[in-house]
Amino acid sequence: MAIKQLSNRERDVAVLVAKGKKDVEIARILFISRRRVGELIFNIKEKWEITSRVEIGIGVYYFGWLQFQDDQDAWTPPFYTTGHLQEVQI
Questions:
Q1: Does domain 8-62 have CATH number 1.10.3720.10?
Q2: What is the mean pLDDT of residues 28-48?
Q3: In this structure, which of 6, 20, 38, 64 has its CB flanked by the most CB atoms within 10 Å?
């Protein structure tokens, strides 16, 4: 089993899934459709050969992509983003 590398957008989605965000919330934060979020989650699961969102969270934690803060609802773009993301108040 080889874990394939994720695209930047897939990483963004994976981090938000790990933070417990729902598809609709992820779509609002990343300015993409809910359907596209579902497609990206499907791609992540295929690349990592996993079946659940919990396993996505485990992978994100394993790779050190989570940035813990005192405010659990706060989200800041990870270090690898290209700067095109903006936080949306939900």
A1: no
A2: 96
A3: 6
For the chain, what are the domain ranges?
8-62
Helix (H, G, I), strand (E, B) or coil at 66: coil
67 — pLDDT class (breaks 50, 70, 90): confident
Do 41 and 31 contact (CB within 8 A), yes or no?
no
Residue 32 vs residue 71, higher pLDDT: 32
Cα 33-50-67 angle, rounded to 5 deg: 65
**Residue linked to tokens 């394939």:** 4
Q: How far apart are CA 41 and CA 62, in angstroms?
A: 18
Cβ burial 9-25 (10 Å sphere, 16+ → b, else e): bbbbbbbbbbbebebeb
Place of tokens 């874990």: 3
